[in-house]
Write a sequence for this structure.
């Protein structure tokens, strides 16, 4: 009895110390950055609500980093440029990130996020990378967008010549479209993903690998009913085998055959063998994540060490 009374006191003591330390040093709670997907913007209700909710649930400050004007540029600005802008904004504009931060990527935003991790010169360290429906191994067709004039134009451009300089310069998704039957065209013409994945034999850069493999955790979330990403397994680095449209190789099997993993071009194998990659498969359509899955797969990585310790101390006394 006596001991069960003294523990909450101890707990309150910890909270006070913790709060004081956090207020004084502001290093307790690592902030996070959200990169939104295509046809979206930071000011959109969905992105705003998502960022706020994560902040509410974790106590960590969240920032949605906008690139260009949002919707338009998410469609038409090549990802190498988007990455450069994100890097400048993250590094130079948000001083709160200077001690390090976490990234939450939504769909195409994962390309920007990973670009920042690998390419950003002198950027603050990225600790945890939480990827929701990221086209990490490429996509084989344009994200579905309906029958508006924009989509008709986009579809026309893609079919015309996805790896031409013109399309590469004017259409964001072309930065990560990987036609399984045109790997040669992809490696030569695609300006972003082959660089990001260190796929070009004579252009592999160990700095990208070093930076990527220094992540503390990489959480890859695939949506089981994802109809936007083709194939959805790209969220886990799974893809079609080179030269064929046949069955998609799920992440683990794809690894056996892909040199990106076996030769560890970007450090995915290093991270995986250190137990730092979480391959998650959740039920739902593209980016339709349930509150309970947010709690299970996102929140724990946005809390920092101190608050996790605190949660452990607090847990046995729940319900008393
Ligand atoms: C966050 O918490 C505040 C205050 O507790 C509340 O008013 C707000 O609705 C919450 N926002 C979300 C997105 O949960
Ligand atoms: C690799 O990337 C780093 C960082 O961007 C750059 O400084 C370096 O010159 C690159 N190395 C090669 C061989 O391209
Ligand atoms: C995802 O999980 C569901 C339910 O557990 C399972 O039926 C399905 O095969 C899994 N999909 C993949 C690609 O692993």
């Amino acid at each position: 009895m006596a001991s069960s009374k003294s523990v909450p006191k101890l707990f309150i003591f910890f909270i006070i110390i913790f709060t004081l330390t956090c207020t004084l040093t502001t290093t307790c709670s690592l902030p996070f950055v959200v990169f939104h997907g295509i046809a979206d913007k930071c000011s959109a209700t969905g992105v705003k609500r998502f960022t706020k909710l994560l902040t509410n649930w974790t106590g960590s400050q969240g920032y949605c980093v906008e690139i260009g004007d949002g919707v338009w540029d998410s469609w038409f600005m090549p990802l190498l440029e988007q990455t450069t802008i994100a890097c400048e904004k993250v590094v130079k504009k948000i001083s709160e990130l200077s001690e390090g931060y976490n990234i939450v990527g939504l769909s195409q935003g994962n390309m920007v996020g990973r670009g920042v991790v690998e390419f950003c010169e002198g950027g603050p360290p990225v600790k945890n990378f939480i990827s929701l429906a990221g086209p990490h191994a490429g996509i084989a067709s344009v994200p579905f967008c309906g029958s508006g004039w924009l989509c008709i134009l986009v579809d026309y451009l893609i079919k015309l010549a996805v790896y031409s300089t013109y399309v590469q310069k004017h259409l964001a998704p072309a930065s990560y479209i990987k036609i399984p039957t045109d790997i040669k065209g992809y490696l030569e013409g695609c300006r972003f993903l082959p660089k990001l994945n260190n796929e070009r034999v004579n252009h592999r850069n160990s700095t990208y690998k070093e930076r990527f493999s220094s992540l503390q955790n990489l959480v890859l979330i695939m949506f089981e009913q994802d109809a936007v990403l083709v194939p959805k397994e790209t969220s886990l680095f799974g893809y079609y085998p080179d030269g064929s449209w046949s069955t998609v190789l799920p992440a683990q099997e794809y690894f056996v055959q892909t040199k990106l993993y076996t030769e560890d071009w970007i450090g995915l194998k290093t991270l995986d063998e250190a137990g730092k990659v979480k391959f998650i498969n959740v039920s739902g359509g593209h980016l339709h994540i349930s509150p309970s899955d947010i709690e299970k797969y996102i929140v724990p990585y946005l809390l920092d060490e101190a608050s996790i310790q605190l949660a452990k101390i607090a847990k046995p006394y729940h319900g008393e």
Q: What stands out?
A: The chain has 16 helices and six strands.
